[in-house]
Design brief:
The complex is a heterodimer.
Chain A (H helix, E strand, L loop, with lengths): L2 E6 L9 H14 L14 E6 L2 H24 L21 H14 L1 H26 L4 E6 L1 H14 L17 E7 L29 E9 L19 E6 L10 H6 L1 H11 L7 H8 L12 H19 L6 H21 L2
Parallel strand pairs in A: 1-2, 1-3, 3-4, 4-5, 5-6
Chain B lengths: L13 H7 L3 H17 L8 H4 L3 H6 L1 H4 L14 H7 L1 H5 L3 H14 L6 H21 L12 H13 L10 E4 L5 E5 L7 E2 L1 E3 L5 E3 L3 H45 L6 H10 L10 E15 L7 E17 L5 E12 L5 E9 L2 E8 L13 E5 H9 L1 H19 L1
Antiparallel strand pairs in B: 1-2, 2-3, 4-5, 6-7, 6-11, 7-8, 8-9, 9-10, 10-11
Classes of the chains: A alpha/beta, B alpha+beta.
Amino acid sequence: MKHIVFLVHGMGRHAPQAWAESVVAKLEESAQRYPFFQGRSLAQWAEFVPIDYDERITGVLRTWQDSAGPVSAFAAAQDLDFAGGLDWLDGIAAEDADFYWTHIADVVIYRLFRLYRERIRISVVDQIATVLAREFDQHGGATASVIAHSLGTAVTHDALCKLGGAPPANLPNTLAHPHWAFKHIFMLANTSRVLQSDFKAYTSIVRPGPANSAQAYCSRFHSFHHELDPFTIPRRFAPSNWSTLYRGEELGHFREWNVHGFGHYLDNPRCHVPILRAITRSDAITAAEAGRAVDEAAYPRFGGQFQPLVEARAKLAELSALRHELADDPSLPEALGIVSRGFKLLREIRDVLP
Amino acid sequence: MIAPLAPSRSRASGGLRRALQPCLGVILALVLAAPFAAAQEPEWERRPIEYTEVPVDQWANDPAAQGEPRYEAVPEDPRYHAQVHQRFEDAIQEGRWLEVIEALAEELRQRPWSGDPGAKSKLQRKLDELADALGAAGALPGIEGPLDTDAERALVIGFLSGRGLGAQVFVPTSEPDDADMEHAALFGGSPEKIAFTTATGAGMYTSAIPPEEMLDLRLRADTVRWLLTKFNEPIRRQHVELIHQAERRWENYLDRGFSQFPWEALFNSLVLDFPPYDPPDHQWILLHPALGVEADVSSFDELRANEALSLEVIGFLKYRGADYEDFYGGSLALTVRDDVGPGVGALLHLKRNLNLGVSWHDFDDDDDYFDDTPSVFFSVDLFRFVSSRAESLQARYESARERLGALRE
């Protein structure tokens, strides 16, 4: 019986399977930084299960687009007064639609349209329940955790409130405490408070706690926020009165321009160490190894796409230091030497900047 | 620091042992050096995590993957759930669950315990509490004798939930310490907590319970978890089936139902009430434009069809079928076409993709819509259906007219 790890994507278009494969690849790559995992695949311990809801949102856009198309064409042909009134729906489901329709619309649809929100929640609940039912049938139990990102954190929060809440037909809920619960919940770029509606992020059952508590639905809860992630700055998720079973981490690394990206969060040891431990063994990465991994020397604040910035800053510091090398009344050769070195540094800065 | 859980069965032959003798000095040196090596950078294999955290079924089903030969005995262990299931098969089949739990509680009571008696007594109290709760549930209205119906199980599960008792209670959980180490425990977060490990610095874990008794606790707790999960099975299946049904209904309601423009979806989102899982079984139509075909049917001989735009101003749909696979309803509508001014009328949604409406246009421009022959509005799908049968319908109409004429003569 493997640990089931549900992966829930964020906003934007997500090709089925491919997005989850890239998340797993990032976790595998991160794992290889630690001795325990070398030569081993995470598949030895975990089965990663992608939870897709993107199609539900794209389907809505497609319906709007397809319904409006013939009407717009007819209205234009007849030169009707409202011709052009539905043109804004043209092309909204296209792969190359603009950022508003591929990303922001996901959030707007989820937050404002209760019909679609409920439909997405039930779709996610159904995907999770299907896998859990399979595990119960095959193994007499299920060990499961969730790693969710961005809009997926809000979707996950709401879907788990449904799954762990009172079922219809007066059935007792055997998929909730004290009968069953998730092991770990990891929320990356947690938007569950920004997008909360009927289920409130701080007071819902989606929080850690003992199995005999009906007000908890997991053993451990982890939330990650990047200091400059624009999606998590407003109404940041930071409960103050949760138990020590909750861990909130602020990340401050820069590896790519999209600091909000799923992979960018996972790249940081503060984020992937607890995940790797949770889905394998607590001691897979020792406290000493984890300490070394987050050390500035091993994992500097800037890297990747931001590497030129590091080099440019170092050279700017050198340039600044040159000012202090000049005597009050330097000789011409000294002055020329400094000017020459300064100009060389400026050219080097030009070369490292993209 | 950590003794093996059970003596592993030696498979080395005498010959092999003799062959190994020259190496004994080297092995002895390695053993003596091991504590010093461990103090520097402990090897993960030496830690007790595998018997505090790893699910019992992994010990039993895949001992080789755990790298622990001592788990080979687990599948035959009388405390392992598969063995318990076999021992109490009749009682389980007949719904005499209380008997099973009482027997397991009694077995634990009889078990000698050399380590901290606290751990055993905490598990004992939990088993006794479970047995008491099952006994009390037997007196609930609606329960008679063994728990052999789904309704009785649902009642008992609800009763146990109210007392904080269920399968998950018997699953070990972990808690972090200040040194970034995870510690597994049973009944964590409650006064009955049984801590499995403590930290000794330098990233080392120490078992808080002697390994044999650790194994005992894990096997017994896991068996209770397994039994309670088994007890829940029919109710869990009903629950999951309700979720599947809700998914099918949502699919039919939104993906295959009557499409909604953004303003309609927003309006319906605001005014409709939803059950916990299912979509609403009805839907408002509001300013919904669609293309169709309008026909003047004053005479079959002069059937004229025109492409037309309908605007359903306000309407209502009701979904039917176990999975909401169909719907019906009606609306008040305006129709627009190129050869005459706008019309007013009503549209019926007979079933999925099948609309039929009637509208009046002011053909004679006398400002009276209703003194002209009405037109019939079809959805595109219905028009295709009618067109494909137009010839046979025309033939039937002609034949009926001829027969009527002959009768009159």
